[in-house]
Structures are given as structure tokens and as C-alpha cells.
Design brief:
46 helices; mainly alpha; 62% helix; five-stranded mixed β-sheet
Length: 992
């Protein structure tokens, strides 16, 4: 202890000081230097420091003020009330302490009694008086100094209030009114600065429309102020030039200069720092649009061109500065667009993107500390309240208010939100906003991040009065976050149950109100959805009770998907099938991850929904996806198939049915893994090929049960099956080959043909078809369905055409007698890997490819959108690679593969293809393959054309792991990647 101080370190620690030695030294020096002028010693006034957010920081700022501005500070320290205001304020706000350091004369405000925030009119009058007709640098300095004086007064009201959460609405409204006054005076200054005749400037109206938090009168301490600028002509067109006023062009020109100048008054570099950013990006066409438009121009834009989110942004629109009459007419004119928006096409997609849009650029490291945009943050509350307003406000004017808390109250009074929920979430929202305010007030900086430093958290806890320690504040905040995360289900979805069944809540929606909610979130058939909800939740069974508890969450997840109607119907069917199964209900109740995955699968895939009806027990895989949603190895599949044929060998039809069931089940496993992002296209092809191989192994074992002894039989995989590149819905291209000992004689051809017929019968499946396509056989459709190995050899040696050698590039012995399969591959090698290929044969390959493009493309199909035969799609890549194989495979071993991508990699490694070209071709091949499989999963049908319908495109985009609202982005990505691949193909294949 030094000097005259009577304070100990332990006392400082008890009062909340952290830097004990430094603060003790500072106190001693201050007492020694300033003596009786210092009326804030700790031992004389401990309660002051105990109630200060950051006593160390307050003491530092007090020392700086004493050293540099003692005369200005003396009257404050002579008044106990003013002294308390000073210490409490600078203890909560370093930023305002620095303001006093810059502008010591403003310390006098601390002598005035603390009052509630003023009205905007009062602030405008005060700021106008301060500016006193100035322009340029003096106007900017005077406006900003007076603004910060009033900001300090609002902060005093806030900091000294015993209940910051109750004071929050008044504080936020005061900040918005002060901002409005600053803009109003800035417009006046700008009018004096713009280089136009005074009469024209006076005749030019300019209304400033506040959006977002400023429009809702719930502004932060430091926040961008979102605005829209509006003007209109004042000249009477019938009076000509003599009539006075300004025409449209002149009004827009002058008001644009006024808007720019007013923005500079707020934001320019000057002796006193800028106030905040004026953000006009919510205007029509955003940054690319005109800064100022006439009212008629705004309305024309909203009528014809505006996107859905722009109508939702208008919900908060409020005249805040400039021409009051024009601003009010603007607000009145745009209101119908807001309240009709939930019935417009595209509203559902826009709702799904509302939260996504604002989180796109948040670093992963910040998500968990985000007060505004993170899970359980302010955006969750605002999103839910605004959605409820947009849905019910179309018919009920009572909920057409701007402020979030006022909207919550209005929704509660109107019966759309239960009173228990409102009583819970109103305070939660206020708590989050108080934290946001105190964090920004600390340094007068725009931020929405909870501090991670323990000292800063401790200061925030003391400043907000919400906890007495850093850890306690962190715990309370996380508890509120968790509660807010459930807000959407409780406020929006749970009341839906009241429309179809008795509810524990105090609100009962009418069927019409429930239909409005369901329609707004994407249900195409709200009546059908209500019927399903009724069937799932009515009754007294254990299942109904659990479903009533779970369904609000499940409905939200379904609505977030691309096809909520389909998901709900499929979920109902699953629930009906599984009934009271304890494991199913337990999984839904205890595993939110599995339940969420289930709604994703049901919403995104008609194909999988159908298979799940056949295998409802497969839902259990979702509870252990790391192990149960992995492709099964071929050896495991073969073991199961062989065990099946062994057990049921005497009953071929029963064994065949089980084999088909295995194929469906394993395809379902892969489909679920793919839908949930656990399987990429490079893994899918081999996994589906393994399933096909196992299926045909079992089928062949059954089909050849009556074959003559010694008859060898083989199935040769061709095309994408041969390349192990199958997708969902792919045909299995095959050739059949046999070899018989001499003693079998003439029975062999009939036996081989019988095996083929039986294979087709055994594998025929109306639920999940397996098309064994033999069109690539010698002589095509005119050739025999099965040949001996010798017959294949003779044909290929004497008669084969170039296209048949090309087809053999993907021939792979897949199922049957191993020796026969290997002998066929050796035979094929002689044809597909020639010592040389003549130029006329190269020309023939190119000619056939051109014919395929012109003749095989379905009538009316867009070549740019056909996934298989279109420009830059699968066939372009495959034909290019296959031509290289025909030309170089004999001398480049890496090209002797049935895999397209492996062969392409080999060609790049051998220097036959430039690396950049190889990347473009591979990207197009993968993209087209993914899209084909996604189309089958989405629709349950095989198709090769990228859809034009936006709903289908959106569904495919979700399956390809795009965010909501990405239909156009998927389309653009596909067209872009295939266009680049086509450029490579035309240059390298055709020589164009």
C-alpha cells in the first residue's frame, strides 16, 4: 500500500477489481495528487465501485480525465449524483469515456438528471440547434458531438436502470429515434450543400425510409442503419416550365445528390468520428439499383420484379426522416405487398432461405459465439415472429406491427401464440438484446459476438446485471439459447396440433389458420397434411402421445425439405406399419439425429420412401449411421446370397424372392447413405455394382440348377456396369457366354438359352426393376442372346465393327465360372486393344458419335440438359476416353481399364491429355453422374434430362447438398461445367 490510501487488495477484489496491484497503485497516486478533489476513494464509497461494470477501466479513465481535464471534471466530482453517473457510465463504456476525453465540455451532461429517452422530435430540435445552419466540417462535428451527448444520456438511463431487460424497449426505441433525428438533420445539411438552385432543392421532396431494426424502433447502440430513399416530382406537367416544382428527372437527380451528401454528413472522416454506416442496399435491385427512386418507380418494381425476401424486408419499413408526407404515403403503398407475400409463388423457398442468407458468411469459429445469427440467437426469434406475422397478417390487421416484442404481444392477444410461450420468449429476447447492447456499448463498436475472454465476460455480467460471474453468465446465456432453439416448434408448429385434436396449450387454431401456416411453409395440400397430423396424434395410445410431443419438431424438419407433403405422408405410412414398435418410438424420442435424418430421406426421395415401405425396419440404420449406412463389401453380400440359395435351393421362387429383397434392401442402404451425404459418386458406382454382382450370382446359381454337368456359364458386365460406374436407375448391360464339354453336345445351346430365360424371370422385379440389357452383343438385336466363347472369338476376329471393339473396352467378367470369365477377357483384349487403329476407323468413331448426338437424342430434348447424350455430358467424356483407349491402350497399360475416370487419369499421367482438360472432363462426368442418380432418388423414375421445373430442380439440388433455394445455382453449375467439358471434347475429339 502506498500514499494515503486506506484500501487493501482484498477489498478491491471484493468490490470487483481485477488488476489489484495496478488499481491500488493508481488509487494511491490519485489521492496523493488530487487530494480533496477526488471524491471517489474506494474506502469512502465502496458501493459505487461494487456496482460499476469494470472498476479497473473506470479508474483508468478517471485518471486520464483528472490529468487532462481537471477543470471540466471538478464540477462533476463536486456532485455525488454526477460522480456516480460518471463512474458507472465509463465503467460500462470505454467508448463514451474516450468521447469525454475528446470533448471534456460534454462532461456537463452528467450534472443533469437522468431521464427516459426523448422523442425523435425533441432530438431533432436539439441536433438542429447544435448544427445552427452550418455546412461542411463544422456541421459534421457539431451534429456528431451533440448526437453522442444524447447517446451518453440514453446509456446513462440504461446503465443505471435496475432492470435492463425491462428498460430495453425504451432504450432501443430511443436509439432509433436519435438515429432518425440525425438523418433528418443530415438531410437538412445536405440540402444546403448540394450545388442546385435553392428553389429547386426546396421543391424536391426526399423521404428516408428506415428498414430493419431502425424501422422497428429497436436499434442497437452501434448498428448499420438500413434505409431506402424516395422522391417524387412536384411540377405540374400541364403548366410547363412556368409552373414551378421539379419534374421526375430533376427530382431524382437532385434527391440523389441530397441522399449522398446526407450520408456523407453521417459517415465522412472528420474531427469527430463517424456515427454509423448508412446502408441503402435493401433498395430495389440492391447495390446495382438507383440510389433514389420515385414512389411510382418503387411500386412498379415491387409489382413486377421484386423477390420474396424484399417484401419481407418491407415489414419493418417506416418513414424516419425527410418528407413526412411522402414517407407515410410510401409506407401505406407498400404495405399490401408485405401482407400478400405469403400467398405469392416462391414464398416457401424464400422462407427457407431467410436464415440461410444471413449465415452464409459467418466463420465457423464464430457461430457458437454469435448472439444474432448463431443457433438460439436473435435471428431465430425474429424469424419466427416475422413468419407468424406474414402468415396471419394477411387477414388480421392486429398483428401488423413492426417491433419484435410488440409483434409477440399482438400475436399473443390475437390468439396465435400461447401466453406461456410469450411469457417465456419475450424475456429471452430482451435478455439477448441487452447482452448485444452491453457488448456494443463497451467500445462503441458494431459486434454481435459474445466475448470469449473471461475478464470481458465478467465485465459483461456486471454491466448487464444478468449474472454475478463470467461462468454464471455463460451458463445463463447458453440456457436461453437452448430455449430459443425450440421457439420455432413451440410457437409455429405445436399450435397446429390444436386444429385437429385437444391440446394442452391455451390457443386453438381454426382449420383455416392451420392451413395458412402449413401452406406458408411449403405444404401443397394443407388439408391432406392436417388429415395426416390428425391420424398421427389423435387417441390415447402411447404412440399418439409420443407423436404429439415429437410432431412439431418433425414438421419443422419436413418443412425445411423440398417436399414436405411427401415426407408427412411417408412418415404416416411408416408409423402405421411400425405401429407400437417400441424401438421405433424410442428412436424418434431419444435420437434427434436419427429423426432428423428420417425426415430428410422422406422429403428428398420418393424412391427411398417407396423402398422404406417394404423395409420399414431399415429406419433403425439411421440410429447407427457410421456402421449401418456403409456399403457392404462384396464378399459379405455374396456370403448372404449363397446362404440364401443354399437354404432354399429346392424352392427356386422363394429363394429368388429373397434375393430380390436383398437387392432392394442394399440399394435402400446406399440410397439413404447418399441422401445423407455419407456416400459420394466415386463410392456409389462400385457399391451398386457389387449389389448387382451379388444378385446375379444368386440368380445364376438358381437358374443353372438343371444345367448339364460341366456346362460353364458366364455373365460379362458391359457399359457402366462393366466400369463399376452404376447409378440409381442404371440398366445392367451384359453379355452371356457359355462353354460346354463335348459330351454335352446339342443340349448345350438349349441349356444356355434356358439359363438366360430363367435369369430374366428370377431377376424380374416390379418394385425395383433390374433391366439386363444385351443390346451390346454381337450383331446387336439380331444376334443370339448367348454364344459360346469360340463363337465370340470367331465373330470378333472376322466380323466385328469398330463400335463393337469400343463396347468391349468396358467388358469385365463379373459372374459365373472364373476360368470362362478370364478367357473371355483375354479374347476381348485382342479386339479392344489393337496394335494400331486406322485413321478411317478413327473417323468412323467420330462419325458414329455425331450420329448418336443427332439421332439418339429424344425429340424435343435440349442438348444442353441431357445428362447422358447432351453436350459435355457423360457420352462426350466416355467417347473421348474410349477413343484414346483404342489408340493407345496397347502401349499405355494405365489405359487398360474398364473405368472411365481411371482411364482418364492414366491418359493425363501419360501426357495424352492436359491436366486442366482432364480435370474439366472428370468434373463434368462426376456432375452428370451425381445428377442422374439424384433425379432417380428424387422422383423414383429413371430420367436423363435435367428438369426445367423449379420444384424438381430444387429437390435434386438438395440431394446434391446445395443449400435451400439453389435450383438456379444447380442449373447454372451444370450448364457451366458441361460447357467447359464440351470445349475440351470438341477440340480434342473432333479437332475443332
Amino acid at each position: 500500500m502506498t500514499g494515503r490510501t486506506k484500501t487493501s487488495r482484498s477489498e478491491l477484489a471484493r468490490l470487483g477489481f481485477a488488476d489489484l496491484s495496478e488499481s491500488l497503485e493508481r488509487l494511491s497516486e490519485l489521492e496523493a495528487r488530487f487530494g480533496s478533489d477526488l471524491r471517489v476513494t474506494v474506502h469512502e464509497w465502496p458501493g459505487l465501485w461494487e456496482s460499476t461494470a469494470d472498476p479497473d477501466g473506470a479508474l483508468r479513465l478517471l485518471e486520464r480525465l483528472m490529468e487532462s481535464h481537471q477543470d471540466a471534471l471538478r464540477p462533476v466530482l463536486a456532485d455525488d449524483a454526477a460522480t456516480e453517473r460518471l463512474v458507472r457510465l465509463v465503467g460500462a463504456s470505454v467508448g463514451l469515456g474516450e468521447f469525454f476525453q475528446r470533448r471534456p465540455a460534454e462532461l456537463a451532461l452528467l450534472l443533469d438528471p437522468v431521464t427516459s429517452p426523448w422523442t425523435q422530435a425533441a432530438y431533432t430540435a436539439s441536433l438542429t440547434e447544435a448544427v445552427d445552419g452550418a455546412t461542411g466540417e463544422p456541421a459534421r462535428m457539431r451534429l456528431r458531438v451533440r448526437y453522442r451527448r444524447h447517446l451518453a444520456q440514453i446509456a446513462l438511463f440504461d446503465v443505471l436502470n435496475v432492470s435492463p431487460t425491462e428498460a430495453f424497449p425504451a432504450v432501443a426505441a430511443g436509439l432509433a429515434d436519435l438515429a432518425g433525428a440525425a438523418l433528418d438533420v443530415a438531410v437538412d445539411v445536405a440540402r444546403r450543400e448540394v450545388p442546385f438552385p435553392a428553389a429547386d432543392v426546396a421543391a424536391t421532396p426526399l423521404a428516408v425510409i428506415a428498414m430493419g431494426k431502425a424501422g422497428a424502433r429497436e436499434l442497437n447502440y452501434v448498428s448499420d442503419v438500413d434505409v431506402i430513399f424516395v422522391t417524387e416530382p412536384t411540377a405540374d406537367p400541364t403548366d410547363g416550365d412556368a409552373g414551378g416544382g421539379v419534374d421526375t428527372d430533376k427530382a431524382v437527380r437532385i434527391s440523389t445528390r441530397i441522399a449522398i451528401a446526407a450520408t456523407h454528413v453521417i459517415t465522412d472522416l472528420a474531427a469527430e468520428p463517424a456515427l454509423w454506416e448508412v446502408d441503402a442496399n435493401l433498395r430495389p435491385e440492391g447495390k446495382d439499383g438507383a440510389l433514389v427512386r420515385t414512389l411510382d418507380s418503387h411500386l412498379a418494381y415491387y409489382e413486377r420484379w421484386a423477390r420474396e425476401w424484399e417484401f419481407q424486408a418491407l415489414l419493418k419499413a417506416r418513414p424516419i426522416a425527410g418528407s413526412v408526407d411522402l414517407g407515410e404515403r410510401y409506407a401505406l403503398a407498400v404495405a399490401p405487398f408485405v401482407w400478400r407475400s405469403s400467398k405469392r409463388p416462391g414464398f416457401v423457398e424464400s422462407v427457407q432461405r431467410m436464415r440461410e442468407r444471413v449465415t452464409d458468411n459467418i466463420p465457423d469459429a464464430e457461430v457458437d459465439r454469435q448472439l444474432k445469427l448463431g443457433p438460439g440467437g436473435l435471428r431465430d426469434v425474429e424469424f419466427t415472429v416475422q413468419l407468424l406475422q406474414l402468415v396471419h397478417g394477411q387477414d388480421d390487421e392486429r398483428v401488423r406491427v413492426r417491433s419484435t416484442l410488440e409483434a409477440m404481444d399482438a400475436l399473443t392477444e390475437a390468439g396465435y401464440v400461447g401466453r406461456p410461450e410469450a411469457a417465456r420468449f419475450g424475456p429471452d429476447y430482451a435478455l439477448l438484446r441487452v447482452l448485444e447492447h452491453r457488448i456494443q456499448l463497451r467500445r462503441l463498436q458494431r459486434t454481435h459476438l459474445m466475448p470469449s475472454d473471461e475478464d470481458e465476460l465478467r465485465v459483461l455480467a456486471r454491466s448487464s446485471g444478468l449474472a454475478n460471474s463470467a461462468s454464471a453468465l455463460e451458463t445463463r446465456w447458453r440456457s436461453v439459447k437452448l430455449e430459443v432453439r425450440g421457439l420455432h416448434e413451440r410457437l409455429f408448429y405445436r399450435p397446429l396440433l390444436s386444429a385437429v385434436a385437444a391440446s394442452d396449450g391455451d390457443i386453438v387454431l381454426t382449420s383455416e389458420q392451420a392451413r395458412d401456416r402449413l401452406g406458408a411453409i411449403g405444404f401443397v395440400d394443407p388439408d391432406g397434411a392436417l388429415s395426416h397430423i390428425r391420424a398421427l396424434t389423435q387417441g390415447t395410445s402411447r404412440r399418439a402421445a409420443i407423436q404429439r410431443n415429437l410432431l412439431p419438431v418433425l414438421l419443422r424438419w419436413m418443412a425445411e425439405g423440398p417436399a414436405p407433403d411427401r415426407a408427412l405422408l411417408a412418415f404416416r405410412r411408416l408409423s402405421d406399419t411400425l405401429g407400437e414398435s417400441s424401438w421405433f418410438l424410442r428412436m424418434l424420442r431419444d435420437s434427434s439425429g436419427a429423426a432428423h435424418s428420417l425426415t430428410t430421406v422422406l422429403s428428398e426421395s420418393a424412391f427411398l420412401s417407396g423402398l422404406l415401405e417394404r423395409f420399414p425396419e431399415a429406419v433403425a440404420w439411421l440410429d447407427e449411421p457410421e456402421t449401418l449406412l456403409q456399403p457392404r463389401p462384396l464378399v459379405s453380400l455374396l456370403s448372404e446370397v449363397r446362404a440364401t440359395t443354399g437354404r432354399h435351393g429346392d424352392d427356386v421362387d422363394a429363394a429368388a424372392s429373397l434375393i430380390r429383397s436383398i437387392r432392394r434392401r442394399e440399394t435402400l442402404r446406399l440410397g439413404m447413405a447418399g441422401t445423407l451425404g455419407r456416400l459420394d459418386v466415386d463410392q456409389l458406382g462400385p457399391a451398386l455394382s457389387d449389389i448387382t454382382e451379388a444378385t446375379l450370382t444368386g440368380a445364376l446359381a438358381l437358374a443353372r440348377r438343371d444345367a448339364p454337368p460341366g456346362l460353364e456359364f458366364g455373365i460379362i458386365a458391359m457399359g457402366r456396369y462393366g466400369g463399376r460406374e452404376l447409378g440409381f436407375g442404371s440398366d445392367a448391360d451384359v453379355l452371356y457366354v457359355y462353354r460346354a464339354p463335348e459330351d454335352v453336345g446339342e443340349r448345350a445351346p438349349r441349356a444356355a438359352q434356358g439359363i438366360v430365360r430363367e435369369l430374366n424371370r428370377i431377376t424380374e422385379d416390379a418394385i425395383h426393376p433390374l433391366d439386363l440389357d444385351i443390346d451390346l452383343r454381337p450383331e446387336g438385336k439380331n444376334g443370339p442372346v448367348v454364344r459360346t466363347l469360340e463363337s465370340y472369338g470367331a465373330y470378333y476376329a472376322r466380323w466385328s465393327l469398330t463400335w463393337e471393339a469400343q463396347a468391349l473396352l468396358r467388358a469385365r467378367g463379373a459372374v459365373g465360372d472364373e476360368a470362362l470369365l478370364r478367357d473371355f477377357e483375354h479374347l476381348a483384349d485382342r479386339t479392344r486393344y489393337p496394335a494400331q487403329i486406322a485413321e478411317r476407323e478413327v473417323r468412323e468413331v467420330r462419325r458414329i458419335k455425331a450420329r448418336v448426338e443427332s439421332e439418339r437424342l429424344p425429340r424435343g430434348a435440349d442438348p444442353a440438359r441431357h445428362l447422358k447424350l447432351g453436350r459435355g455430358s457423360l457420352s462426350d467424356v466416355e467417347w473421348f476416353v474410349q477413343l484414346l483407349q483404342l489408340q493407345y491402350a496397347l502401349t499405355v497399360p494405365a489405359l487398360r481399364t474398364t473405368s472411365t475416370l481411371d482411364a482418364l487419369d492414366g491418359a493425363v499421367a501419360a501426357g495424352l491429355v492436359a491436366p486442366e482438360d482432364g480435370e474439366r472432363l472428370a468434373a463434368a462426368w462426376r456432375f452428370a453422374s451425381r445428377t442422374r442418380s439424384a433425379l432417380v432418388l428424387w422422383s423414383g423414375k429413371t430420367t436423363d434430362v435435367l428438369p426445367v421445373d423449379r420444384t424438381q430442380l430444387e429437390g435434386v439440388a438438395r440431394l446434391m447438398e446445395y443449400p435451400p433455394g439453389s435450383a438456379t445455382r444447380l442449373e447454372e453449375d451444370y450448364l457451366g461445367v458441361t460447357r467447359r467439358a464440351r470445349q475440351v471434347f470438341e477440340r480434342e475429339f473432333y479437332g475443332v
